[in-house]
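General statements about sequence and structure are easier to judge against a single worked case. In the encoding step, the backbone of a single protein was reduced to a row of integers, each denoting a local shape. The record that follows shows the chain in one-letter code together with its fold in token form.
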Amino acid sequence: MELEVWLLVAAVVVALVACGLSVVVVRQQRDLRSALDAREAAPAASEPEPPRGPLLAFVANPSKSGTEVIKPALLARCAAEHLREPLWIDTTVEDPGVGQAREAVSRGADVVVAVGGDGTVRAVAEGLVGSDTPMALLPLGTGNLLARNLDISVTDLEDAFDVALHGMDRRIDIGWLQVDDPAEPSAPEGEDVPEDGDQVPLEGTPLDKAAAEPVRHLFLVIAGLGFDAAMVADADANLKDKMGWMAYFVAGVRHLHGKRLQMTITLDDKTPVEARLRSLMIGNCGKLPGGITLIPEAVIDDGIHDVAAIDTRGGLVGWAQLLGEVVMQGFGVSNDLPNKIGRIDHTRAERVRLHVEGGEQVQVDGDVLGRATEIHTWVEPGALVVRAPVPRLDAA
């Protein structure tokens, strides 16, 4: 009997141990299942979100004030948006952005962002002409002409970045200007004309009459010959840093009493006409800094350019009347009175050829090309894709 009792006790102990182990195993399985269920329910809490969205390429002018300051912020913003690591390509004196834009496209960029002023924007645009890759803008310049005409903020870079990332793609026209007959450089009164080899033109400027091939220059907003170009050419760089676009008006005061230019103007295939003017401007769009709309009828994607012929007589009185004309036309009011001493006349053309006796300064989007006696321009419709703000639903 004693053996039977011991066997019974042993069986009871084994049974109790087995029950205990079963309970432990059940609890472990339950805890493991709960952990797996929780992980499946909230994967973002334990795994970082993979990069998504477009690949941005920033083509930046390192000489522009503020470029190095905003670079870390832009890269951090891209990381916060879970974008792929962006490309950052600096421009150089030898290449202000054309080659960099093409490099960005070859490396798979979905959007090429021009970081700089109007010169950088022009160069990046030239590198993207004819492609489907959009150009976005982060304006750091003085004029920021294209940004103003596209209603992209020139004071709020956060807003401009939002447009670059979330804006809509829009095809716009571009303009080309070619200097067919460069003029000898002239010096201000009291200064000597530079000797051969001292003249340092902008990249691509055909100042050399012996140049084999004239160079074409892209413009997106306004090209001009006369007073406007002379004003831009004389604007002080230090003053521009301190006063912004107002520096151009300070420079313009020195040319208010300049001579009127004898011009021969040919529009498309029409008969050439003779005119005495202060300036002739060809516009792809018409907004300038300071809230000025120089060419109200200019539309950036209509396949044609608007031409503004500007003239004044009578000294300061004529300039005052001209300024009044420009301000009033911005509000849709025109003055058709005859014999005005300050006037701005408008027409339209796809091609413009201009000859000026003696030569005069030429500019494209605020970049001075030098002096010329003959130029011609033409429009290339829908040649560039830009990233623009999405229209507001409550817009009038």
